Every structure is written in structure tokens, then in C-alpha cells.
Amino acid sequence: NAGVMQNPRHLVRRRGQEARLRCSPMKGHSHVYWYRQLPEEGLKFMVYLQKENIIDESGMPKERFSAEFPKEGPSILRIQQVVRGDSAAYFCASSVPWSGNSYNEQFFGPGTRLTVL
Amino acid sequence: AQKITQTQPGMFVQEKEAVTLDCTYDTSDPSYGLFWYKQPSSGEMIFLIYQGSYDQQNATEGRYSLNFQKARKSANLVISASQLGDSAMYFCAMRGIGSEKLVFGKGTKLTVNP
Q1: What are A27-86's pLDDT values in tens digits?
Q2: How far apart are CA B23 and CA B36, in angstroms?
Q3: Distance between CA atoms of A43 and B6, rounded to whole angstroms?
Q4: A40, A102, A104, A115: which to substitute to probe chain B, counting the most B Cβ within 10 Å?
Q5: Which of A29, A41, A51, B56 has the smallest set of CB atoms within 10 Å of its CB?
Q6: pLDDT in tens, B19-28
């Protein structure tokens, strides 16, 4: 049973280019979360998606960032016109639908390390 | 709003000894969950242990235990019999009932010396 998969693992972009990060959740998981980890920091929530729906995007920067989780295929985090400050590790996590218990484990992928030159 | 504070940027421990990593939290939610994750140098996030706010007993998972003091709003991780492979970043996180997002602290870098 494969875990959460993210690709690419490392991505280098020049300022102004677009970055596309992909996340395939674990089998049977319909919820996807994206987190960003800046150097020397903890993870910060960006967005929570279910299939074809954005549920909570309170952590997403207002401009240049977007996320989707289509009916078919992986979830995509898209960063347009990247800047140096976007350099970070981006983690995807997935879970089964929340059943009302605070313990609803999120399984993390290995992350994508984005470097903006 | 929820907040996690980890006041120890770095900790050192001798192999085979126990170590406690501190975590305090702040929330107005009546019910919440607390999590610890390990991040080795390879970068992945590894779930270690969970404590629910209404759990009567402190959580334990193998060599990991959680010293949960609700009145003090602390959820310290205790690692017994440290091993060299325990050297990593450790993150405390929480989530409130009805919220799907995890809130993380800044982490503690643990170094286990031989």
C-alpha cells in the first residue's frame, strides 16, 4: 500500500517562472492538505481540499498560489511567478474523511524542495 | 486561534539516556488533539504519538511517551533509552475539534551523542 507520493522531490525555478507540485494521496484517502516549511521553521498550513472542492484556504497567500484536487489525478499546488521567498519545502498530507474525533491522522508525503534562483 | 511553543531550539542527550522535549500550547477549543512528529535529515515527517485532550491516561508508543499536563497546557515528549537514530528535528502540533489543519511549533533539534 503506497504512501503519499509527491513529485518532483526537488524543483529548481528561476524568478518569474511557474512551479507545479503534485501530490497523490494514499489509496482510499479523499482529503488532501498542503503545508509549507520555510528554513528553520515548522510546517504551516496552506490549504485543505477534498475532491473537486477547496474546503479551507486560510493559509494560502492571496496572490500567485492556487491549489486543486480534481476528480481524477493528483492534487496540484501551483505557484505562479515564483520569487526567492517561495523557496521552501512543500509537504502534502492525506487522510480519510473526518469522523468527529480529533485523532484523524494525516499521513505526510516526502515533500518537494523548491529552490528559486 | 491555536499556538504551539517549543522553547528548546536544540537538545543534546547521551545514547541510552532519556530526554524530554518541551511543548506548550494555547487554544480556546474545549477539545483538541496533540501530536508529535519526527523529521530526520532526509526530510520526511514521521508521526510518533497522539494525545487527545480528554484522554485519561498519558499516551505511550514504545520508547515514546507523552507527559500531558492539561492544566499547564503542556504536552512534553519523553524519549527513553535514546538511540543514535533518534537524532532529528521534533515537532509538536495540535488540532482542534472541527478543524482539519494542524498547527505546528518551530521544532527542537535533538542530537544523540555516542
Answers
A1: 989 999 999 999 888 899 999 999 999 999 999 999 999 999 999 999 999 999 999 999
A2: 9
A3: 13
A4: A102
A5: B56
A6: 999 999 999 8
- pLDDT of B92 above 70: yes
Cα-only R_g, chain B: 14
Q: How far is A106 from chain B (nearest CA, A)?
A: 9
Contact B82, B70 (CB under 8 A): no
Searching chain A, which residue's CA lies closest to the CA of residue B10? A40
Three-state DSSP at A67 gives strand
Contact list, A40 vs chain B (CB under 8 Å): 106
Residues in contact with B90: Cβ distance below 8 Å, sequence separation at least 6, in sequence order: B21, B36, B37, B38, B39, B48, B77, B107, B108, B109, B110
Amino acid (one-letter) located at B47: F
A38 touches chain B (CB under 8 A): no
Q: Does A104 touch chain B (CB under 8 A)?
A: yes
A91 is written with which cell numbers? 509537504
Q: Which of B6, B32, B107 sits opposite A102 (nearest CB)?
A: B32
